[in-house]
Amino acid sequence: MSVYISVELQRQIRNKFANCCAYCRTAEYLTVTTFEFEHITPRSSGGETVFENLCLSCPSCNRYKASRQTALDPNTQQKIKLFHPQQQLWTEHFAWNEDATEIIGLTPIGNATISALKMNRSQLIRVRKMWIKMNEHPPNI
Ligand SMILES: [Zn+2]
Questions:
Q1: Ligand 1 center–CA 47 separation, angstroms
Q2: Residue 59 C-alpha to ligand 1 middle, in angstroms?
Q3: Mean pLDDT of all residues in the chain?
Q4: Cβ-based burial of 65 (10 A; exposed 0-12, middle 13-18, buried ≥19)
Q5: Residues flanking ion ligand 1, Cβ below 5 Å
C-alpha cells in the first residue's frame, strides 16, 4: 500500500537519515534498490504520514518490520518496543562490532530490533565485508 509523500517531505527524511537505512544503516548508493519511506507507527495503527513518523528504510528492514511495533528481546524473551528512528538515537541502542560487519545491541530495544529486522542477516554481513574493503563502510553518519 503506497501513500503520497511530497517531494519536499521525502527530501527532509533523506536528509535526516543521510540516505541510509534508519535501522541497519546501509547506504542506499551502495545497493541496487531504492529505499522506502517507512511509517514507524504503521498506518494500520493510526500512524500518520508526517516527518515525525517517517524514516528511510532499506526494503529488507521495511519488510521484516512490516506493521510490527514490538518484538521479543532474544536475551530475555520480553516484549520490547522496536527502535524509533525519529525519537531515539541509533548510537544509544546500537554499535558496530570491532570490524563493523555486525550491529551489536546496546539495550533491549537494540537487541529486539536487530532480531526482528534481521539486521545481521548473513547476506548483509557478506556485503558489509565487501564495502569495508572498498572503504565504504561503516557509513559516516
Ligand atoms: Zn535496513
A1: 20
A2: 7
A3: 96
A4: buried
A5: 21, 23-24, 58, 61
Q: Which pLDDT band holds residue 113 (cuts at 50, 70, 90)?
A: very high
> How large is the average pLDDT for residues 61-66?
96
Average pLDDT over residues 88-93: 98
And the C-alpha cell for 117? 529486522
What distance in angstroms lies between residue 120's CA and the mean position of ligand 1's atoms?
Answer: 10
